[in-house]
Task: structure prediction
Amino acid sequence: MMCRRTAHVLVTCFIPCLILLLGNCTQMTAEEKKETHYKRGLAYSEEEKYQEAVIEFKNVIQIDPKDANGHYQLALSHLKIGGITDVQSAYGELSKTVDLDPSNQDAQLKLGELFLLGKKPSEARERAEIVLASSPQDPKGHLLRGRSLISEKEYNEGITELKKSIELDPDNVQIYLDLARAYVGLEDFTTAEETLHDALAKHPDSTQLVMALGDFYAIQQKSDEAEAQYRQAIELDPNNEGLYVKLALFFQAYQKYDQAEATYQQLAAQQPHSEKPHLFLGEYYTYMSRADDALASYKRAMELNPDSAAARERLTNHYLDTGELKLAEELVNETLEKDKRDSMGRVHKARLQMATGDIDDAVSLLQKVVNDNPNLPAAHEYLGIAYGARQDLSQAATELSEAVKLAPNKVTARTALAAVWLASGEYDQAIDEAQAGIRLNPRNLKAVRILGAAYLQKGEITKAKKVFEMVIAQVPQESSSHYQLGLIAGNDKRWAKAIKHFEEALKGSPDSIQALSQLSSIHLAQGEAKKARERVLQQIDASPKNPLFYNLLGRLWMQEKDSAQAETAFKQAIELDANVQTSYMNLAELYRQTDRTAEAVNEYEQLVKRNPKLVSGHMVLGMIAEQQGDYEKAKTHYTNTLDLQPKFAPAANNLAWILAEHDRAGNLDVALSHAQTAREQQPQEPHIADTLGWIYYKKAAYLKSVSLLGEAAEKLKDNPEVQYHFGMAQFKKGNKVEAKKALEAALKLNATFPGADEAKSTLESL
Result:
């Protein structure tokens, strides 16, 4: 019997030996590991698991960086995945492949195709010639060489190459398509059509050829023949959803909207269990501004496939676009609970933040998404929009330009970019982008408005007028276009025409203070003060809760020297909405003009004494003190107001102005913070735009300054200081013509306003 100690010694000796033996048995050489990864990669590729294949082929080249086949297979996997990033990776791997193995002809040809895709035809031709040098009868080599020559507009030589390719490979449909395109490039439309018919005689069941012939007829404006070809393609392949989409888009281009809708519905009937037809329908209804139908389609898509990321994305976008923020938030939360790094989920979260005024948080989040996924158009688009909301127009233009580069047919990105160019004073670029947005969607009213506004800013009145007239021909109640046409008519003193357009603008937008103000101005210009007041009262009956209408009424009573009626109107405006800046300005000005400042101060001090939390009381006292030049007292009242209501826009704006203009410390950063708070709360208020723009001017941020001050100057045309601010910003930005125009307008309104001396000296320098 063996003692325990002896047995322990034997076991202790035996185990290391066993481990050593097993280790020797399972130890693989680097070559064997490489072979294992390579075979796994091929297996994954056959199963169409390309992401997994990429990992395996990366392991191959990590073990052996000079393995040409590993680089080649990795390139093929990236190409199968698709997408910009993967195509870029494929380009790199194909380049390494041909460097290591120039005899790999397929790699040479695929690299050539990528050069063509990247608009580098001469580099593509070099790859074709490498292949043809060793294999002069290679049809793909002749095809690539022919396509590269045609890209360089060497049509005749390119056609010769394509014909050689057809002789060597008559069953390759793609060659016929390229040959037909070459003849179109030569404007030899007869031969182009014959080429397609010859190809169809050999390949009558090719949907590619049938669709190409349809496209050819569409180019020739032969809509009936084009439609027949597209329908024939659907008959050949009734389950190909892309064919239905092509036909529907064709109908949309010809404004045959009922037939476009019917085509999408035909696809839905053909594929009753697929969510995709309903997504197409939803996009069509969105295009047609049929929000309820779009919503129903997106919901139906979600019902058919609750796991569809595309359906969830479209539905979330719809809720965000239509202001259904709670419903959007529910979907965003569900998406991010599944994957907190989901790119579109984070983009949607940023859109929610923008909708609730959290612009800085949105910018921060979108910057992270762009860093993680630099080729996601939506991330760049909404980052650009967020920068625009922050008046960082240079960054906005950069991001939106990148979005357009990544997705040239994205209507919303092009329209947003057009708006940024317009705000930046880059009117030609605004026109280009607006026209691109209109080409993509002729019903894009926002782009049309931008186009008209850009023409107006350029002084091309006839073109602007034509744009706005085209809009109301299509949409008779489009108020913005009527308003602009009213301004154009008013400038020519065609009062009856102007009144007609302003009245139409009010029908479409009953709360439009701009249109109502213009009507009042026309009546006053014609000596009809009573008629002006009556028209305002009529609109108050239609929109009784609009404080701006009461402000307008009060100003009209001030012109009649009826201070009691004016005071009543201004106080009604404050009672309706205590956040409106203009109401306090008007009331304080009324007290100044009627020498009732002391009486007003006493009244409001008593009110504040009885109710220390009366925001409007502190606000009026602050404005009276500011009018009297007692800026320290005004600062105290505005600060008290903000202590009570931290985001009270009028107080934040006025405090920002005092800090920027009258504070000894001159703390522009604190002033900027207050002005930004005011702007976030009231983005449409022109006095706030003026304050924020002037602070940016003082900080030498002239691009932002011009945008904001231009907005204020457009809305406050009778305010000399605002016109002066805009003129100085234009001067600093180098826009001398615009600067001169604005400064002259300021001095014409009032030759002694604060800043008049600088306006005069600047004009002299111009």
Q: What stands out?
A: DSSP finds 44 helices and no strands in the chain.
